[in-house]
From TrEMBL, chain A:
<dbReference type="InterPro" id="IPR016161">
    <property type="entry name" value="Ald_DH/histidinol_DH"/>
</dbReference>
<dbReference type="GO" id="GO:0016620">
    <property type="term" value="F:oxidoreductase activity, acting on the aldehyde or oxo group of donors, NAD or NADP as acceptor"/>
</dbReference>
<dbReference type="Pfam" id="PF00171">
    <property type="entry name" value="Aldedh"/>
</dbReference>
<dbReference type="InterPro" id="IPR016163">
    <property type="entry name" value="Ald_DH_C"/>
</dbReference>
<comment type="similarity">
    <text>Belongs to the aldehyde dehydrogenase family.</text>
</comment>
<feature type="domain" description="Aldehyde dehydrogenase">
    <location>
        <begin position="38"/>
        <end position="475"/>
    </location>
</feature>
<dbReference type="InterPro" id="IPR015590">
    <property type="entry name" value="Aldehyde_DH_dom"/>
</dbReference>
<dbReference type="InterPro" id="IPR016162">
    <property type="entry name" value="Ald_DH_N"/>
</dbReference>
<dbReference type="InterPro" id="IPR011408">
    <property type="entry name" value="Aldehyde_DH"/>
</dbReference>
From TrEMBL, chain B:
<protein>
    <recommendedName>
        <fullName>Deoxyribose-phosphate aldolase</fullName>
        <ecNumber>4.1.2.4</ecNumber>
    </recommendedName>
</protein>
<dbReference type="GO" id="GO:0016052">
    <property type="term" value="P:carbohydrate catabolic process"/>
</dbReference>
<feature type="region of interest" description="Disordered">
    <location>
        <begin position="1"/>
        <end position="20"/>
    </location>
</feature>
<dbReference type="GO" id="GO:0004139">
    <property type="term" value="F:deoxyribose-phosphate aldolase activity"/>
</dbReference>
<dbReference type="InterPro" id="IPR013785">
    <property type="entry name" value="Aldolase_TIM"/>
</dbReference>
<dbReference type="InterPro" id="IPR002915">
    <property type="entry name" value="DeoC/FbaB/LacD_aldolase"/>
</dbReference>
<dbReference type="InterPro" id="IPR011343">
    <property type="entry name" value="DeoC"/>
</dbReference>
<dbReference type="GO" id="GO:0005737">
    <property type="term" value="C:cytoplasm"/>
</dbReference>
<keyword id="KW-0704">Schiff base</keyword>
């Protein structure tokens, strides 16, 4: 078109970014990243179908070699002064910036995402993570004196943000002194390969970071490799679940950042034009191929029609086209196979489908933006993650209903709330089950602010101080957990003076075991102390139901009130100190003085947790811009726990009290060796204003009951302190709803281990509150 | 009384003529209900320059169009008839003829010339026969605090002197005290005083404190019959910005959806780079449509913008970066 014609039509024209430098880099490598003779796969530009390069398919032997190299490099890297590591991470950040344009183009070629996004979002954020974590390497020795590197990390990242996810995973791992084997996604390995060059240029020692390309089998081999100490995965819930199962019982640390179906709540008093732009950012950023995409519009019924009309008008001005064009809003989906999957998902929906008329480039995996309105929460597309440029929409009547609809999902990654009433917006935000919540905003990220999900969106956080927990472990090796077993029936049994039956405690009431079976509890001196119920999965079911009902009220009670209850609990335990000491003597055979000391220690531990109940501060993160990014601690939810076998009472208090202090409801499995102690403690709970249902106690065989708890879909976490190694079946079971599981090998009961328990008993949530007049 | 120049003297293909906004009864519910979330608007505004890029022939064509949208302005205490004649000469021939020829573009002019009342006469004279309208700032510009009856008389005098467009200033105090009725009544009276001349209502957004006030003032000005709403006098601490523009064009869109009438938009002050002009034009195209890329619905209030556009156009023609002295002074 001539200038004169354009002067009249005022059309936009092509504004392509040059691919020259990125292609030259590929050419310089002969478009092949593999040793001679290696099996390779192709990586293609999804916008054109053009072959970009051939890349090595990592074999089991390659995984072995990479892990061995990481293992060999680990001691020196971990021992290197933090400042030296900081210099290298700083150099990586600088180099990312210096290579920003080539990397952005390479990312766009490989993923099909708009160059504007790789240039303005992926690259700056990736560099920011390296800067931020250079600082963490610098501060580690002083600020985290009790933590050390975990070891060799196997990291598996997805195809939607290849370089950014690399940065999120590699930067904190290296900062804390870990070594890394990173497997980029099969469709998008190129920027990771480029980054390997950057790492070398930055002076990263050999073996500290290996980029291992390959498909899912390579990733599976890496995750399951016995030489890997920690696995970090970002990707689909399905694969995350498989990794949880595959690593069960291997003693590996694991963090999972998985799928989502994040809610976008739009209230009638919102700035609708801004909210429409918020939706554009939410669901059409990277073509909706974003784990935290605001893909579920939940709009107030009275404005739904107007919102859909405005949204359709806005969609008509979105430009779909060549990803390298600086004037387009949507590029190509990441792969033709993914395009087919998205198209198949939305075909035949019951909703009203709108896609603006637009001419899509040929030969690529392009897709126009789609709005599907008129859906109900029961429609499959309101529940399934589509992972494409498809917004689904339903309506609500009241804020409480909006929150209920938002929370009616298996996922819990992110949410967005739009209202000009700060009070109403915060009230909804407080009720949302999601790890990241944006108020009048969407898709805001920063290295200083934790990111990660709840429920089947995974566990663990990336970013901030909280993200470092995933890449460190305590320096001090804790003493192994003690095993325990019921005291065997003595040769010469003595009947009790009066029959005693320790019942279960469910929902604040005494309950008989559902199976109607009990076992005798013997004292070490041969006395029959009474009977303890033999629990079954139905008792767990009942206990979880009671805990679920009690959980909201216990959280709402607040830290100050929970502190009072825990102090009162200590007071009432103190009043029965002699009785508990005698019980310990009878059931554990401990000397009287030792038993008395344990009761004292338990009292002190209760005071510690009463103290903590109102002192686990949140934080306001120093993120750029006019926004308050608040990290809040929320209770993990309903926690199922097997109590320690020894020390019985101190162990019970040490495990239960932190859960209570932080607002959780609990399903507690008593120690096998001394179930009556827990039963007695239940009576103390009854007299101490602990609301019914907050603590539910059962007894039985942990090897039977803990896997049941792990499988229960309505528990958010499961802790196993029973001294048997049940990590295999527990972690396997926990894969079902991807609950957090904690099966430590050891614990030093002489200390409260507050940091460990606070982290396990709470979830951090990041609440983003942008502001402006 | 001199005749009124029609506000379309350029070579732009004329848009489907739109009816003048007659205004409407003050709807206080709608004014009160106007919202503007500043943080979200700032985020969106920051993306506008990044989301659209114009290269090569497209950039040249858009910049040429931008020239036709400029209200070439001088509003200085030392303005003289000679200074105004020089400005008008530039308005008539804003871009070197050889550059236009190289681009195969027709002769173009700026959208208007904007002056103080006392400079209307020399401007009208200098622009006679060109079709370029003279716009006059009025109503006690820039503060708008002179006696109300004198402000109306000033409009009438400027219209009588030949101004085809009157840039009035609103009473900021009515916005800051929430006295929407007073703001409406004043502005409505000014619109009546304008008669056939088009009224651009300057909101002085840099003095309104919040974007929500900008939204509400935009609504009241349009309800009172403004033909254009305009950001700034150029004399406030903060002049046109993209966030403020987003709020105002959204109000224009909502007013059009409500009444069917199209109101024009004029960002003024602080737009001095060709690249900035393109961002504003992309904003208009995406938010309001192509009608708002024509001088009857969109103007830049700018004095130094033209110089940068000329340099960019020459760069497009020659491939070499240009210099300001290669282009005639305005």
């Amino acid at each position: 078109m001539t200038v004169r014609e354009i002067f009249e039509t005022m059309e936009y024209g092509p504004a392509p970014e040059s691919a020259e430098a990125a292609l030259a880099w590929l050419d310089a490598h002969g478009r092949r990243f593999a040793p001679a003779g290696a099996e390779v796969f192709e990586t293609r530009n999804p916008a054109t179908g053009d072959l970009l390069a051939e890349v090595a398919q990592g074999s089991a032997a390659d995984v072995d070699a990479a892990v061995a190299a990481a293992r060999a490099a680990f001691p020196a890297w971990a021992a290197m002064p933090g400042h030296r590591r900081a210099r290298i991470l700083y150099a990586m950040a600088r180099l990312l910036q210096k290579h920003a344009r080539t990397l952005a183009v390479l990312e766009t070629l490989d993923t099909g995402k708009p160059i504007r996004e790789s240039r303005d979002a992926d690259l700056p954020l990736a560099a920011r993570h390296f800067y931020y974590h250079a600082g963490m390497a610098q501060l580690m020795a002083e600020e985290l004196p009790d933590r050390q590197a975990i070891g060799v990390c196997g990291q598996i990242i997805p195809w939607n943000f290849p370089l950014l996810m690399l940065a999120w995973k590699v930067a904190p791992a290296l900062a804390m002194g870990n070594t890394v084997v990173l497997k980029p996604a099969e469709w998008t390995p190129l920027t990771a390969l480029y980054f390997a060059q950057i790492a070398a240029e930055a002076g990263l020692p050999e073996g500290v970071l290996t980029i291992l390309t390959g498909d899912g089998t390579t990733g599976a081999a890496l995750a399951a490799h016995p030489g890997v100490d920690k696995v970090a995965f970002t990707g689909s819930t399905e694969v995350g679940r498989a990794i949880r199962r595959a690593t069960a019982g291997q003693g590996k640390a694991l963090t999972l950042e998985l799928g989502g179906k994040s809610a976008f709540i739009l209230a009638e008093d919102a700035d609708l034009d801004s909210a429409i732009e918020g939706l554009v950012e939410s669901i059409w950023f990277n073509g909706g191929q974003v784990c935290c995409a605001g893909s579920r519009l939940i709009v107030q019924e009275g404005i739904a029609g107007e919102v859909h009309d405005r949204l359709r008008a806005r969609m008509a001005t979105l430009r779909v086209g060549d990803p390298l064009d600086k004037s387009i809003d949507l590029g190509s989906l990441a792969d033709p196979a993914h395009h087919a999957r998205v198209a198949a998902m939305i075909a035949g929906t019951a909703g009203e489908v709108f896609a603006p008329p637009c001419v899509l480039p040929e030969g690529g995996a392009h897709m126009a933006p789609v709005l599907i309105s008129g859906l109900e929460p029961a429609d499959p597309l309101m529940q399934q993650e589509i992972f494409g440029p498809v917004l689904v929409s339903t309506t609500y009547r009241t804020p409480a209903e909006a929150v209920a609809i938002a929370n009616a999902t298996r996922y819990g990654l992110a949410a967005s709330v739009w209202s000009e009433s700060l009070g109403a917006a915060l009230d909804m935000a407080a009720g949302l089950e999601a790890g990241v919540i944006w108020v009048n905003g969407a898709n805001m990220f920063d290295a200083a602010a934790g990111f990660g999900g709840l429920r089947e969106s995974g566990f663990g956080r990336e970013g901030g101080w909280e993200g470092l927990r995933a890449y460190t472990r305590p320096k001090q090796e804790a003493p192994a957990l003690a095993a325990g077993a019921p005291v065997a029936k003595p040769q010469a049994a003595r009947a009790p003076d009066l029959d005693r039956t320790a019942k279960f405690r469910i929902g604040g009431k005494q309950a008989r075991p559902d199976g109607g079976q009990s076992r005798a509890v013997w004292a070490t001196d041969g006395r029959l102390l009474g009977h303890a119920g033999i629990g079954s999965r139905k008792d767990i079911r009942n206990a979880v139901e009671a805990a679920r009902a009690a959980r909201p009220g216990w959280e709402k009670a607040g830290g100050a009130l929970r502190a009072q209850v825990l102090y009162f609990l200590a007071e009432n335990l103190s009043a029965r100190a002699g009785e508990f000491a005698a019980g310990l003597v009878a059931q554990t055979g401990a000397p009287a003085a030792e038993a008395a000391a344990e009761v004292e220690a338990a009292l002190e531990r209760l005071f510690t947790w009463a103290a903590w109940a109102d002192k686990q501060d949140g934080a306001v993160k120093p993120v750029p811009g006019k926004v308050v990014a608040a990290m809040l601690h929320r209770p993990a939810g309903v926690i199922g726990m097997a109590l320690p076998e020894a020390p019985v009472l101190l162990g019970l208090v040490s495990v239960l009290a932190p859960a209570l202090a932080t607002g959780n409801a609990c399903v507690v499995l008593a120690a096998e060796s001394a179930p009556l102690i827990a039963a007695e403690f239940g009576q103390v709970l009854d007299t101490s204003d602990v609301p019914g249902g907050v603590v539910n106690m059962i007894s039985g065989d942990p090897a039977v009951l803990m896997p049941e708890m792990a499988r229960h879909a309505d528990l958010e976490a499961v802790w196993c302190f029973c001294g048997q190694d049940l990590s295999g079946p527990v972690e396997e079971g926990a894969a079902g709803n991807l609950k957090r599981s904690w099966c430590p090998r050891g614990m030093d009961w002489s200390r409260a281990n507050a940091a460990e328990f606070l982290a396990a008993a709470t979830e951090t949530r990041t609440l983003w509150l942008p502001y402006g007049a | 009384m001199t005749s009124h120049a029609k506000p379309s003297g350029t070579a732009i293909p004329s848009s489907a003529a739109h009816a003048r906004n007659p205004g409407m009864t003050l709807d206080l519910d709608r004014v009160a209900g106007a919202s503007a979330n500043s943080a979200a608007i700032a985020r969106r505004a920051a993306q506008i320059p990044a989301r659209r890029s114009l290269k090569g022939a497209h950039q040249a064509a858009w910049l040429a169009r931008a020239v036709t949208l400029i209200d070439l302005t001088t509003l200085s205490g030392d303005d003289t008839p000679g200074r105004v004649r020089r400005l008008c000469a530039k308005a008539r021939q804003p871009v070197r003829a050889d550059l236009l020829a190289a681009l195969d573009l027709p002769a173009i002019t700026t959208g208007a010339v904007c002056v103080y009342h006392e400079m209307i006469a020399p401007a009208v004279e200098a622009l006679a026969g060109t079709g370029i309208p003279v716009a006059a700032v009025s109503t006690g510009f820039p503060a708008g605090l002179s006696p109300f009856d004198l402000r109306l008389k000033e409009i009438e005098a400027s219209v009588a002197a030949g101004a085809a467009e009157i840039d009035i200033v609103i009473s900021r105090r009515h916005v800051l005290t929430g006295n929407w009725q007073a703001l409406y009544d004043e502005t409505r009276a000014m619109r009546a005083a304008c008669g056939p001349a088009h009224m651009k209502a300057i909101l002085a957004t840099g003095e309104l404190g919040t974007l929500r006030n900008v939204a509400r003032a935009s609504w009241v000005a349009m309800m009172a019959g403004a033909d254009f709403i305009k950001t700034s006098t150029g004399k406030e601490g903060v002049n046109a910005t993209l966030p403020v523009s987003l709020v105002m064009v959204r109000a224009i869109r909502a007013y059009r959806d409500l009444t069917g009438f199209k109101v024009g938009y004029k960002p003024a002050g602080g737009i001095s780079k060709a690249k900035d002009a393109l961002s504003y034009m992309a904003l208009m195209k995406d938010e309001l449509g192509d009608d708002w890329l024509r001088p009857d619905l969109f103007r830049f209030g700018a004095s130094s913008l033209l110089g940068d556009i000329e340099r960019q156009l020459e760069h497009h023609v020659t491939g070499a970066y240009s210099a300001s002295w290669r282009h005639a002074m305005g």
